[in-house]
Amino acid sequence: MLPMLALALGLTLDPPAVTTPSSEAVPPRLEQNKPIPACVPDGDSSLFTTLHPAKATDKDVPSPPGVSDAEARKAIQRLSSPKPALREEGLRMLRTFTAPEGQWAIYHASRGAEGPIKLQVLEHLALLGASGQAGLTWIAIHDPDAAIRNEAAVRIEQPASGAALSVLEGALRSPNHMVVNQAGLLAGQINAVKAIPLLIAAQFAQDPVRDQSDLAWIAIGTQRSYVANLIPITGNSSAGFQPVIGQIYEGVVMAIDDAAAVATTYRPGVHQSLMALATLDSGQSTAHLGWDLNAWVGWYNDTYRPILAARAAESDPAREPK
Question: Do 227 and 309 lie in a common domain?
Fold first, then answer.
């Protein structure tokens, strides 16, 4: 299984060329050292697709240029006010944050607010079409609060839009294992069957590990005993000596103090969603494939792609000549 990890590690981010409608319905085969097909051939390049490698923290994700954090904080403060007039003003201000940068600013400002205020922000994003769906997808993957991630996920439309799939794809290609695992869980939650090729490659990853310390040693030799010292012992009309036994080692010691290895990280959230989506969409159990990358690639090329091809033929039958 592990030799085939080169398939996942050698993937690039280049999407495949799109020529005909049938090529969109049936993605290319999975080949070793070849790019994995994109979830959406014409991927979205909005703000939230560029934030995917970072965690949802102030230090990792700065506010985009041109966004007024002060206005966003002011809107959240109005929404949190006990006075109805101020809450109404805050709601009016909230509705003005419609651009992706504004969506990020209002979400960022609401992270310290109470739960109902956060839900109002999520409801606002859910009304903003494709860009709002991208924002909800990002939040459903990166927000540190599991409850907020779930609330964002339930507001993502199904089938997922191209903007949402683009954000999901970026997260699945992230080097951050936690981000990839949460993106895999979200893929199963929103039934993102178009992400199956990426899920296959993202089930596990190998990272180089280098350590410099006393890691291990092997000793091959002979141990000999000898009298190293004598301790005199005296008594009434008697004397004697207590020997001190020493040890001598003869042989060779091999010490390892530097090593370069590869650590395999398994992502159970990705694996579980992959099995559920693959079984549901193909109508055949995939439990027997386990974690075997060879088996998954063979299943995708030889079993799943013919199913997609048959569906494409049914939805777009060839026209009979007149």
Answer: no
